[in-house]
Amino acid sequence: QLKTPRRVIELARRPLVMGVINATPDSFSDGGTITCEEEGLRQAMKMLGEGADILDVGGESSRPGAEPVPLREELRRVVPLIRRIARETGIPVSIDTTKAEVARQAIDAGAEIINDITALRGDGRMARVAATAGVPVILMHMRGSPSTMQKGHLAYASVIGEIRDFLEDRIEKASSSGIQTDNVVIDPGIGFGKTVDDNLRLLRHLGEFKALGRPICVGVSRKHFTGKITGVARPADRIEGTAAAVTAAVLNGASIIRVHDVGAMKRVAAMADAIRRVR
User: Fold this and answer.
1) Which residues, other chains included, contact 244 with Cβ-Cβ below 8 Å and sequence gap of 6+?
2) Which of 36, 60, 127, 244 is least surrounded by CB atoms within 10 angstroms?
3) How far apart are CA 172 and CA 154, in angstroms?
4) Catalytic residue at 223?
């Protein structure tokens, strides 16, 4: 279970589907799709109708090479939209941000989860915001920053071991900062400072992260490595590769899958979960 100030989110019955809402002009997959509050709300309603369990709203792209967005602009992109989604849908909303002030204002507007790709390292005030608000946090592994993560030497001595140690340290940091350990979700950060083979290894051995005792969130939707393997250049066309990666993630223990194509991946996750659970 994850406990927000408004509800209890059950994780044990089936994998949850987190729909991605990018209020950005430059996200790798769907940048520029949402240019105003009404378009964001329409996408939220569509994803809700397709069976999304959580909506993850972000106002700053984390694609490789992305540059930071000024605080005021990120607030403008996400806070009014989150307020509308929370008020008009009732679905749990996650704020995808690295800035504590964005997280704080998003929570005031109705967000119930913080999704921090820096795992509390990007802004020293983030842990305090999460602890004070009593909201769950998703802590992700990333080497470097979005602008640098795919540059230079990407080799790991042991990609599973290094990421497991990193996430264990971040769980301890969250706990020592006053965040309830039961409200921590971990994310190995597929596509963030990893090679194609690294991403495949993470999916193949995802179950090893269960030793940390926390639910696992996985984001593989439309990512470059799925296109590289399947030969599909356009992100929106990478649905088959995404489906295979989602299947692998669910079979190996993912509790939350973060996706763009909610309806299709909801069905894929249901099938994979049925295979995983059969005796």
Assistant:
1) 226
2) 36
3) 26
4) yes
Q: pLDDT tens digits, residue range 4-36?
A: 999 999 999 999 999 999 988 755 455 556 667
**Which tokens belong to 23?**
């209020």
Q: Are 167 and 139 in contact (CB under 8 A)?
A: yes
Q: CA-CA distances (angstroms) from residue 145 to 36, 222, 243, 245, 270? A: 27, 20, 27, 24, 33
DSSP string, 45-62: HHHHHTT-SEEEEESS--
34-39 contact pairs (CB < 8 A, 24+): 34/81, 37/80, 37/81, 37/84
- E-state strands within the chain: 2-3, 8-9, 16-22, 54-58, 93-96, 113-116, 137-140, 184-187, 217-219, 256-259
**pTM exceeds 0.90:** yes
Structure token digits, residue 24: 């950005």
Q: What would the 3-class secondary structure string for 126-174 be? A: HHHHHHHHCCCEEEECCCCCCCCCCCCCCCCCCHHHHHHHHHHHHHHHH
210 is catalytic: no
Contact (Cβ atoms closer than 8 angstroms) between residue 48 and residue 91:
yes
Over the stretch 231-274, which tens digit does the pLDDT of each residue have?
Answer: 999 999 999 999 999 999 999 999 999 999 999 999 999 999 99
Determine which one of 83, 201, 223, 266 is catalytic.
223
Residue 226 CA to residue 207 CA, distance in Å, equals 20
| Distance between first and last Cα of the chain | 24
Give the active site residue among 77, 164, 214, 258: 258
**Residue 176 burial (10 A CB sphere; 0-12, 13-18, 19+):** exposed
